[in-house]
Design a protein that fits this description.
Chain lengths: 514, 178
């Protein structure tokens, strides 16, 4: 409690006494019939509305989820062990809301918007309801700006636009969170605000994420909303909605934000727990019937607003964890059908060293192509084609031993392209460098470099370009499309570097021969 | 009050209004419910599943004749026996009363005050409550010295609170939040 002077208290009390006759409290109340497992059943409250906040004794709040003929079922937030049968419950006539605003940036909060870090209270007066209607058709426009993830494989072949919803799906330990972290780190000194929502994760994992973001200076444009595994299912259930409400603030204020929901499988499980305790009928895999609607109303709130509304955007990158690669389970199919594309991560690829372990064959982005910068579209078109041909051939070539020259060349190029799409963690690349290396790959500059040297070639190419041809990189970044002059410049730079690289290669080999 | 009891209660209310004998049926139901709870023998007989429905009905028919129960009331009790819901009788009576009150525009009010109200105060309070709710008020009066002063009225799930205790509570939460 803040310090308050004695005369102030006296003043307040005096005012209250003077106005004593005027006010009468009108409340609508009910009484608790039963309580347990974070669920309360309440008699009375005839006029309570679905989703309304209810106020219990001991500062516990609840959300009315089930309105039945003779009782109301509510989930409880906070320490519900103190609630007893017969306690009085009041309506608040408000819907659950969280604080929103710029003050949240750089903070770690729980789903109620209370700080979990040691940076003091959140300095904002604005609040926003956690459940809001998604923007209508007229309020939107097609995506047109890219979300640069800094990951070559994604930015080139599965581009994500601002306002898009792109699913990240894969088994455990395939690098799903790594993609998110790379994306957040790559937004440094950009205008995209990142909201990372951890649902049902270990506290240690969340702490690790926060530390990584802090160390790389990425917390300055990020918000972390955490409902860890030890918190009640109710908290995990509202966490993504709270994160979305925080993101909507930026969307509606002409800014850009992106929400990462890590992960929605756990969210569905939390919702299943609540629903079963509320005795809603179980459906497939015991999930309630409205689990599809649960996720679609969350993800529909991601949008690119039209110019009249300020052209802000909220993108969403939900994560789904599959069990043994089973993407046809209930929740994965649901979320796949809601989102505008998906990034598949496979443990087989991860184990043979393709990291990020993206399966480019079945990953798609349905709308992001329009948002790609033109230069990237120009080089990535042939990359996609070559990779598709390579995968087809590679499957065949496993059986045959004698291959003609053209096939061998195709396989070789495929191997080298796979190699250049590999990328270390926390090493996001600028778009001009991505364009350059993919240009080199698809224009056969790598064909005579041994596969194991490709990554070293890539690394040395970047430093060579930065020292000798930084104007070419700048030109790509500024023009955002490749014309003939720029192409010629790139070819010249690549020729020069390749000569150097090959010569340096030969020297130690010759020395060994002598 | 269970949903089941409400169904029986509102069905009986329908019948009572159709026959324009609402008061008689209401009184009969209250009388019978009292007999049912007071007489252990009758209670045992009606709730014992080994006694056939026929036997129960014949006993009930005689009692109904002696008590002078309305024809429809007797039929209603027979239906309860057929459906095996005699145990719900007390609840059904409550639901029926509530339903009748609702249809007649009467609401129950629980008035809690710190001091005994004079009859003039009571009628003034009832009048203003009738003005607020637009219904006839059937009030029960309770005493609770802890309220210090003023009165609290509960109608259904709405509370009109004008007590000193509530004002003090509110003042406390206001000061705590500042």
């Amino acid at each position: 409690m803040a310090t308050i002077k004695a005369d102030e208290i006296a003043k307040i009390i005096r005012e209250q006494i003077e106005n004593y006759q005027q006010v009468m409290a009108v409340e609508e109340v009910g009484s608790v019939i039963s309580v347990g497992d974070g669920i309360a059943r309440i008699h009375g409250l005839d006029k309570a509305m679905a989703g309304e906040m209810l106020s219990f004794p001991h500062d516990v709040v609840g959300i009315a989820l089930n309105l039945e003929e003779d009782q109301v079922g509510a989930v409880l937030l906070g320490d519900y062990t103190k609630i007893e049968e017969g306690d009085t419950v009041q309506r608040t006539k408000k819907i659950m809301s969280v604080p929103v605003g710029e003050a949240l940036i750089g903070r770690v909060v729980n789903p109620l918007g209370q700080p979990l870090d040691d940076k003091g209270p959140i300095a904002t007066n604005q609040r926003s309801p956690i459940e809001r209607l998604a923007p209508g058709v007229i309020d939107r426009q097609p995506v047109r700006e890219p979300v640069q993830t800094g990951i070559k494989a994604i930015d080139s072949m599965i581009p994500i636009g601002r306002g898009q919803r792109e699913l990240i799906i894969g088994d455990r330990q395939t690098g799903k969170t790594a993609i998110i972290l790379d994306t957040i780190i790559n937004q440094k000194s950009g205008d995209l605000i990142c909201i990372y929502c951890a649902i049902g994760q270990k506290r240690s994992t969340v702490a690790q994420v926060v530390k990584t973001l802090t160390d790389s200076g990425a917390m300055e444009h990020s918000i972390v909303v955490a409902a860890s595994a030890s918190e009640p299912a109710t908290m995990q259930y509202i966490a993504p909605f709270a994160a979305c409400a925080m993101g909507e603030f930026f969307r509606d204020n002409k800014k850009h934000a992106i929400c990462f929901y890590d992960d929605l499988s756990k969210h569905a499980q939390a919702y299943r727990e609540i629903s079963l305790l509320l005795r809603r009928p179980p459906g497939r895999e015991a999930y309630p019937g409205d689990v599809f609607f649960l996720h679609s109303r969350l993800l529909e709130r991601a949008a690119k607003m039209n110019d009249k509304l300020g052209a802000g955007s909220l993108s969403a990158l939900p994560v789904i964890e599959t069990q043994a690669g089973d993407v046809s389970a209930y929740i994965p199919t649901n979320v796949i059908s809601i989102t505008d594309g998906q990034i598949y991560l496979e443990s087989d690829l991860f184990n043979i060293g393709v990291r990020p372990a993206i399966n480019a064959g079945i990953s798609v982005s349905r709308v992001g192509g329009n948002a790609q910068i033109k230069a990237m579209r120009q080089v990535a078109g042939s990359l996609r084609l070559e990779m598709a041909q390579y995968r087809e051939l590679a499957a065949f070539a496993q059986f045959g031993s004698e291959l003609d020259k053209a096939t061998q060349a195709q396989l070789g190029r495929g191997q080298r392209l796979t190699e250049i799409l590999k990328q270390d963690q926390f090493q996001p690349l600028t778009v001009e460098k991505q364009v350059l290396i993919i240009f080199a790959g698809t224009n056969r500059y790598l064909d005579d470099i041994p596969v194991e040297d490709v990554r070293r070639f890539e690394k040395e190419l970047y430093s060579f370009m930065e020292t000798n041809f930084s104007n070419v990189l700048k030109a790509i970044a500024q023009k955002k499309s490749l014309d003939d002059a720029l192409r010629a410049d790139m070819k010249k730079a690549l020729d020069e570097f390749k000569q150097q690289f090959v010569a340096a290669e030969r020297k130690p080999a010759e020395a060994a021969a002598d | 009050m269970s949903a089941l009891a409400q169904r029986y209660g509102s069905a009986l209310a329908d019948v009572a209004f159709e026959h324009r004998d609402a008061d008689k049926i209401r009184k009969d139901l209250a009388d019978f419910a009292q007999v049912f709870t007071e007489s252990g023998d009758l209670h045992n007989l009606l709730s014992n599943p080994s006694v056939s429905a026929e036997a129960k009905k014949s006993v009930l028919g005689e009692i109904a004749g002696k008590m002078g129960l309305h024809q429809e009331m007797r039929n209603f009790l027979f239906i309860l026996i057929d459906h095996g819901r005699t145990a719900l009788l007390g609840e059904i009576q409550g639901a029926f009363d509530a339903e009748m009150n609702r249809r007649l525009g009467i609401v129950d009010a629980i008035v809690t005050s710190a001091h005994e109200l004079s009859s003039a105060e009571k009628s003034r309070l009832a009048q203003s409550l009738e003005r607020v709710t637009g219904k006839k008020i059937q009030a029960q009066y309770q005493l609770n010295p802890q309220l210090i002063g003023g009165a609290r009225v509960q109608i259904g799930s709405t509370i009109y609170d004008g007590t000193v205790r509530e004002r003090l509570n509110r003042l406390r939460s206001q000061l705590e939040s500042q």
